[in-house]
Amino acid sequence: MADIRSPDLDRGDPRRQPVAPPSAAIKAEASSRVSALAKPLGALGRLEDLAVWWSACRGVCPADPPANVRAVVLAGDHGVTASGSSVSAYPREVTAAMVCAFVAGVAGVSVLARQHGVSVRVLDLGVDADLDGLPAEVSAYKIRRSSGAIDREDALSLTEVQQALAAGAVIAAEEIAAGADLLILGDMGIGNTTPAAALIAATWGVPATEVTGRGTGIDDQALVAKTALIQAALDRVGARAADPVQRLAALGSADLAAGVGFLVAAAQSRVPVLLDGVIALAEAAVAEDLAPGCVAWWAAGHRSTEPAQQLATDKLGLVPLLDLGLRLGEGSGAVAAVPLVRSAALLLSQMALLSDLA
Ligand SMILES: Cc1cc2ncn([C@H]3O[C@H](COP(=O)(O)O)[C@@H](O)[C@H]3O)c2cc1C
Ligand SMILES: O=C(O)c1cccnc1
User: Fold this and answer.
1) What distance in angstroms lies between residue 216's CA and the mean position of ligand 1's atoms?
2) 51-89 burial, b if ≥16 CB within 10 A, otherwise e?
3) Fewer CB within 10 Å: N-end or C-end of the chain?
4) Neighbour tally for 271: CB within 10 Å
């Protein structure tokens, strides 16, 4: 494994370290400028909020549009997909096959990312295979093979959670060092909508019936079984899940815990993130618990069909930009929203002020 020391997350317990917000002064300046543009007040709708958010995160008004957008896809397998389980419509072997597809640049998100000039880096945190034949750096941060089956056992040990949090922080630091001005977190892992929904349910204390979705497209019978499995996991863990690190150990996975570390580190480094679907929102839910204030550095790229994603965006006060019925993951909904961030930034910088006309 690569050296996973990180400046913030391995210095003892990362719990409840508040994150400083984007610049309040720039936010106020950007809000005034948006209102002064040559248009009726509010006429650019949510692009106005997006322009203000982007400016405040960049600390300058107006800010250049994102030029170095970098997506990281965290891959892992999940104990809940053991043979005989019906939580996913697809077998576990698809995870490793898709990692190869990301490396080859032929996954769904790869196509969108090429179109929008976004880099994509795939990393194996917990795939249940040795990815022989792929570049060694793909598995440089591997924590273990497949996380535990959360209805029966913990997903990870506490040591593995800390390793994964630190790995995620280092991965974010690497992307920032490569010049990222906007980050995207993608996911690949058959069965991952199950731990993601469980983490979201445990974060806000709601029952499995409110968070369980069809993921890759399971039928009614499988949906009943998946809901029961998630409820069994929540019941097994009980009050322990109130603590975000324990929650990750009990209900998460190596890839999800690394996503949490990535989000906390990005916010601590004052780099904004476009969130994607239910997996990114589960990571966001736990990250905000670990380091309150992170949410100010995020925008929601899209609304997924997964109920847990919708619940988490609502609870975090994020309004998704796109609503295309996407249910792919991989970071696809966030990458699809990148042109909106660019448009918002350009409107703020290139439109005339109403007072300059006539
Ligand atoms: C070919 C294929 C490509 C994918 N890309 C993302 N996912 C997404 O679907 C899976 C989550 O849904 P569930 O919990 O129902 O298994 C994850 O692999 C997620 O990344 C895919 C799934 C498949 C089958
Ligand atoms: O919400 C998502 O991103 C999602 C939904 C279904 C399957 N995989 C991901």
Assistant:
1) 6
2) bbbbbbbbeebbbebbeebbbbbbbbbbbbbeeebbbbe
3) C
4) 20
Pocket of ligand 2 (CB under 6 A): 193, 215-216, 276-279, 304, 306, 309, 327-329
Listed residue (191, 185, 188) closest to 103, CA to CA: 188
Yes or no: say if 262 and 123 are a contact pair by the CB < 8 Å rule. no
Residue 177 CA to ligand 2 center (angstroms) comes to 29
How many CA atoms lie within 13 Å of 315's alpha carbon, on the beta-carbon side? Answer: 21
Quick one: which atom of ligand 2 is closest to the CA of 329?
3
Nearest to 75 by CA among 54, 97, 57, 91: 97
What would the two tokens of residue 315 be?
């609870």
From atom 20 of ligand 1, which residue's Cα is the shortest distance away? Answer: 188
What is the overall mean pLDDT for the chain? Answer: 95
